[in-house]
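Batch manifest, entry 17 of 40.
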Amino acid sequence: MKLIGIDLDGTLLNSQQKISKKNVETLKKISENSLPFICSGREVEDITNILIESDLSIPAVGLNGAIGYDNGKKLFEFYFNHSSIKEVDSLVSKFPTKIYTNYGSYESLEYKTKLKEIFKEMGDEFPIDELNYELEYEKSIESTPFSNINEIISIEKIKVYKFFVFIPNRKIKSEIKKKLDCLNDISNTESSAVNIEIVPHNVSKGYVYNHLERIYELNNTTRFAIGDSLNDFSLFENADFSFAMENGHQIIKNMATFITASNDEDGVAEALNIISTM
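Output type: C-alpha coordinates
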Protein backbone atom coordinates (compact mmCIF):
# COMPACT_ATOMS: atom_id res chain seq x y z
CA MET A 1 0.00 0.00 0.00
CA LYS A 2 1.22 3.46 -0.91
CA LEU A 3 0.65 5.92 1.94
CA ILE A 4 0.94 9.48 0.62
CA GLY A 5 1.14 12.50 2.94
CA ILE A 6 0.37 15.79 1.17
CA ASP A 7 0.82 19.27 2.60
CA LEU A 8 -1.77 21.93 1.78
CA ASP A 9 -0.52 25.56 1.72
CA GLY A 10 2.27 26.08 -0.79
CA THR A 11 1.86 22.50 -2.00
CA LEU A 12 -1.61 21.25 -2.98
CA LEU A 13 -3.08 24.76 -2.88
CA ASN A 14 -1.94 27.25 -5.51
CA SER A 15 -1.38 30.97 -4.92
CA GLN A 16 -5.14 31.54 -5.20
CA GLN A 17 -5.68 29.08 -2.32
CA LYS A 18 -7.35 26.60 -4.68
CA ILE A 19 -6.72 22.99 -5.67
CA SER A 20 -6.25 22.93 -9.42
CA LYS A 21 -8.39 20.74 -11.65
CA LYS A 22 -5.35 18.69 -12.66
CA ASN A 23 -4.36 18.07 -9.03
CA VAL A 24 -7.94 17.02 -8.20
CA GLU A 25 -8.16 14.60 -11.12
CA THR A 26 -4.78 13.04 -10.33
CA LEU A 27 -5.65 12.69 -6.63
CA LYS A 28 -8.90 10.91 -7.45
CA LYS A 29 -7.15 8.52 -9.79
CA ILE A 30 -4.37 7.54 -7.38
CA SER A 31 -6.90 7.10 -4.53
CA GLU A 32 -8.21 4.00 -6.30
CA ASN A 33 -5.25 1.91 -5.12
CA SER A 34 -3.34 4.11 -2.65
CA LEU A 35 -4.12 6.07 0.53
CA PRO A 36 -3.35 9.78 0.10
CA PHE A 37 -4.02 12.04 3.08
CA ILE A 38 -3.75 15.76 3.75
CA CYS A 39 -1.36 16.73 6.53
CA SER A 40 -1.46 20.46 7.25
CA GLY A 41 -1.01 23.06 9.93
CA ARG A 42 -4.60 24.17 9.32
CA GLU A 43 -7.62 23.13 11.36
CA VAL A 44 -9.31 19.92 10.21
CA GLU A 45 -12.60 21.74 9.57
CA ASP A 46 -10.79 24.17 7.27
CA ILE A 47 -9.09 21.30 5.42
CA THR A 48 -12.37 19.41 5.10
CA ASN A 49 -14.15 22.41 3.61
CA ILE A 50 -11.39 22.80 1.02
CA LEU A 51 -11.64 19.11 0.11
CA ILE A 52 -15.44 19.23 -0.16
CA GLU A 53 -15.18 22.23 -2.48
CA SER A 54 -13.04 20.10 -4.80
CA ASP A 55 -15.18 16.96 -4.39
CA LEU A 56 -12.34 15.08 -2.70
CA SER A 57 -12.86 12.53 0.06
CA ILE A 58 -9.55 11.59 1.72
CA PRO A 59 -8.33 11.64 5.34
CA ALA A 60 -7.57 15.09 6.73
CA VAL A 61 -4.90 15.56 9.40
CA GLY A 62 -4.68 19.04 10.86
CA LEU A 63 -2.62 21.17 13.23
CA ASN A 64 0.67 19.53 12.22
CA GLY A 65 -0.51 16.04 13.16
CA ALA A 66 -2.46 16.80 16.34
CA ILE A 67 -5.84 15.57 15.08
CA GLY A 68 -7.09 13.44 12.20
CA TYR A 69 -10.48 12.77 10.62
CA ASP A 70 -11.78 10.61 7.79
CA ASN A 71 -15.28 11.33 6.43
CA GLY A 72 -16.39 12.93 9.68
CA LYS A 73 -14.97 10.19 11.92
CA LYS A 74 -12.24 11.19 14.38
CA LEU A 75 -9.18 9.00 13.93
CA PHE A 76 -6.91 10.38 16.67
CA GLU A 77 -6.13 13.50 18.69
CA PHE A 78 -3.35 14.78 20.98
CA TYR A 79 -3.48 17.90 23.15
CA PHE A 80 -1.56 19.86 25.80
CA ASN A 81 -1.93 19.44 29.54
CA HIS A 82 -2.80 22.65 31.39
CA SER A 83 0.66 23.16 32.89
CA SER A 84 2.26 23.03 29.43
CA ILE A 85 -0.28 25.54 28.13
CA LYS A 86 0.71 28.00 30.86
CA GLU A 87 4.43 27.44 30.28
CA VAL A 88 4.11 28.12 26.56
CA ASP A 89 1.92 31.17 27.15
CA SER A 90 4.47 32.64 29.56
CA LEU A 91 7.02 32.72 26.72
CA VAL A 92 4.86 33.91 23.82
CA SER A 93 2.04 36.01 25.29
CA LYS A 94 3.48 39.36 24.16
CA PHE A 95 3.39 38.27 20.50
CA PRO A 96 0.29 37.91 18.28
CA THR A 97 -0.91 34.39 19.03
CA LYS A 98 -3.57 32.00 17.81
CA ILE A 99 -4.58 28.98 19.88
CA TYR A 100 -6.36 26.04 18.24
CA THR A 101 -8.76 23.94 20.32
CA ASN A 102 -11.64 21.48 20.09
CA TYR A 103 -13.92 24.53 20.39
CA GLY A 104 -12.39 26.38 17.46
CA SER A 105 -9.56 28.88 17.41
CA TYR A 106 -8.81 31.77 19.74
CA GLU A 107 -6.62 34.78 19.05
CA SER A 108 -4.93 37.42 21.17
CA LEU A 109 -6.77 40.74 21.34
CA GLU A 110 -6.65 42.92 18.21
CA TYR A 111 -4.76 40.15 16.46
CA LYS A 112 -4.64 41.64 12.95
CA THR A 113 -3.72 45.08 14.25
CA LYS A 114 -0.95 43.55 16.35
CA LEU A 115 0.38 41.68 13.32
CA LYS A 116 0.86 44.99 11.53
CA GLU A 117 2.28 46.77 14.57
CA ILE A 118 4.84 44.13 15.47
CA PHE A 119 5.92 43.76 11.84
CA LYS A 120 6.50 47.51 11.65
CA GLU A 121 8.36 47.43 14.97
CA MET A 122 10.72 44.50 14.38
CA GLY A 123 10.19 43.02 10.91
CA ASP A 124 12.42 45.19 8.75
CA GLU A 125 14.57 42.19 7.71
CA PHE A 126 11.57 40.60 5.95
CA PRO A 127 9.64 41.61 2.80
CA ILE A 128 6.12 42.93 3.32
CA ASP A 129 4.87 39.80 1.56
CA GLU A 130 5.38 37.87 4.82
CA LEU A 131 2.89 40.12 6.60
CA ASN A 132 0.48 40.25 3.67
CA TYR A 133 0.36 36.44 3.49
CA GLU A 134 -0.67 36.21 7.14
CA LEU A 135 -3.31 38.91 6.70
CA GLU A 136 -4.70 37.20 3.60
CA TYR A 137 -4.79 33.85 5.38
CA GLU A 138 -6.73 35.43 8.24
CA LYS A 139 -9.61 36.27 5.92
CA SER A 140 -10.61 32.61 5.89
CA ILE A 141 -10.44 32.11 9.67
CA GLU A 142 -12.88 33.16 12.37
CA SER A 143 -11.38 33.20 15.86
CA THR A 144 -12.56 34.22 19.32
CA PRO A 145 -10.46 36.98 20.96
CA PHE A 146 -8.95 36.29 24.40
CA SER A 147 -6.97 38.52 26.77
CA ASN A 148 -5.65 35.96 29.26
CA ILE A 149 -4.79 32.28 28.91
CA ASN A 150 -6.91 31.44 31.95
CA GLU A 151 -10.00 32.37 29.93
CA ILE A 152 -9.26 29.41 27.69
CA ILE A 153 -8.04 26.94 30.31
CA SER A 154 -11.16 27.53 32.43
CA ILE A 155 -13.49 26.37 29.64
CA GLU A 156 -14.93 22.98 30.55
CA LYS A 157 -13.52 20.08 28.52
CA ILE A 158 -11.29 22.39 26.46
CA LYS A 159 -8.49 20.69 24.51
CA VAL A 160 -5.64 22.84 23.21
CA TYR A 161 -3.92 21.36 20.18
CA LYS A 162 -1.59 24.06 18.86
CA PHE A 163 -0.16 27.56 19.36
CA PHE A 164 0.67 29.72 16.34
CA VAL A 165 2.91 32.70 17.17
CA PHE A 166 3.91 35.55 14.84
CA ILE A 167 7.51 36.68 15.53
CA PRO A 168 8.97 38.62 12.56
CA ASN A 169 12.52 38.84 13.91
CA ARG A 170 15.07 36.06 13.48
CA LYS A 171 17.09 36.85 16.62
CA ILE A 172 14.10 37.10 18.93
CA LYS A 173 12.47 34.07 17.36
CA SER A 174 15.64 32.03 17.87
CA GLU A 175 15.75 33.04 21.53
CA ILE A 176 12.12 32.02 22.05
CA LYS A 177 12.68 28.68 20.31
CA LYS A 178 15.65 27.93 22.60
CA LYS A 179 13.45 28.54 25.64
CA LEU A 180 10.68 26.39 24.19
CA ASP A 181 13.19 23.59 23.59
CA CYS A 182 13.85 23.54 27.34
CA LEU A 183 10.20 22.81 28.17
CA ASN A 184 8.98 19.27 28.69
CA ASP A 185 6.04 17.84 26.76
CA ILE A 186 6.13 20.28 23.84
CA SER A 187 7.73 20.53 20.41
CA ASN A 188 7.93 23.37 17.92
CA THR A 189 8.39 23.95 14.22
CA GLU A 190 7.58 26.69 11.69
CA SER A 191 5.73 27.09 8.41
CA SER A 192 7.50 30.36 7.52
CA ALA A 193 10.41 32.51 8.68
CA VAL A 194 8.09 34.72 10.74
CA ASN A 195 6.22 32.19 12.88
CA ILE A 196 6.56 29.41 15.42
CA GLU A 197 4.07 26.54 15.63
CA ILE A 198 3.96 24.78 19.00
CA VAL A 199 2.35 21.39 19.61
CA PRO A 200 2.47 18.62 22.25
CA HIS A 201 5.71 16.63 22.28
CA ASN A 202 4.06 13.51 20.78
CA VAL A 203 2.75 15.44 17.76
CA SER A 204 4.45 15.76 14.39
CA LYS A 205 3.51 15.25 10.78
CA GLY A 206 5.99 12.38 10.66
CA TYR A 207 4.11 10.38 13.29
CA VAL A 208 0.95 10.38 11.17
CA TYR A 209 2.20 7.49 9.05
CA ASN A 210 2.33 5.31 12.18
CA HIS A 211 -1.15 6.40 13.28
CA LEU A 212 -2.73 5.60 9.91
CA GLU A 213 -0.90 2.30 9.52
CA ARG A 214 -2.21 1.25 12.93
CA ILE A 215 -5.77 2.54 12.46
CA TYR A 216 -6.23 1.11 8.96
CA GLU A 217 -4.20 -2.03 9.77
CA LEU A 218 -1.82 -1.44 6.87
CA ASN A 219 1.19 -3.68 6.35
CA ASN A 220 4.21 -3.33 4.07
CA THR A 221 3.43 0.30 3.24
CA THR A 222 5.62 2.55 1.16
CA ARG A 223 5.56 6.07 2.57
CA PHE A 224 5.55 9.14 0.34
CA ALA A 225 5.69 12.80 1.37
CA ILE A 226 4.81 15.88 -0.69
CA GLY A 227 5.48 19.32 0.78
CA ASP A 228 7.25 22.65 0.72
CA SER A 229 7.98 24.13 4.16
CA LEU A 230 9.87 23.41 7.37
CA ASN A 231 6.84 22.03 9.15
CA ASP A 232 7.00 19.22 6.56
CA PHE A 233 10.48 18.25 7.82
CA SER A 234 9.32 15.29 9.93
CA LEU A 235 6.98 14.14 7.13
CA PHE A 236 9.96 13.98 4.79
CA GLU A 237 12.17 12.45 7.47
CA ASN A 238 9.78 9.53 7.97
CA ALA A 239 9.00 8.92 4.29
CA ASP A 240 10.62 6.40 1.96
CA PHE A 241 10.36 8.88 -0.91
CA SER A 242 9.72 12.62 -0.79
CA PHE A 243 8.74 15.33 -3.26
CA ALA A 244 9.46 19.03 -2.70
CA MET A 245 7.71 21.78 -4.61
CA GLU A 246 9.96 24.02 -6.69
CA ASN A 247 8.71 26.91 -4.52
CA GLY A 248 9.70 25.04 -1.35
CA HIS A 249 12.16 25.94 1.40
CA GLN A 250 15.73 25.09 0.45
CA ILE A 251 16.19 22.74 3.43
CA ILE A 252 13.14 20.75 2.33
CA LYS A 253 14.36 20.71 -1.27
CA ASN A 254 17.74 19.42 -0.09
CA MET A 255 16.01 16.56 1.77
CA ALA A 256 13.73 15.57 -1.11
CA THR A 257 14.10 12.52 -3.32
CA PHE A 258 12.54 14.54 -6.15
CA ILE A 259 11.86 18.22 -6.84
CA THR A 260 8.70 18.89 -8.83
CA ALA A 261 7.14 21.93 -10.46
CA SER A 262 5.78 24.65 -8.16
CA ASN A 263 2.38 24.68 -6.48
CA ASP A 264 1.18 27.02 -9.25
CA GLU A 265 2.26 24.52 -11.91
CA ASP A 266 0.55 21.36 -10.59
CA GLY A 267 3.58 20.06 -8.71
CA VAL A 268 1.42 17.63 -6.70
CA ALA A 269 -0.01 16.07 -9.88
CA GLU A 270 3.55 15.64 -11.15
CA ALA A 271 4.55 13.92 -7.91
CA LEU A 272 1.51 11.64 -7.92
CA ASN A 273 2.17 10.61 -11.50
CA ILE A 274 5.69 9.58 -10.54
CA ILE A 275 4.39 7.72 -7.47
CA SER A 276 1.90 5.81 -9.63
CA THR A 277 4.82 4.29 -11.57
CA MET A 278 6.79 3.22 -8.52
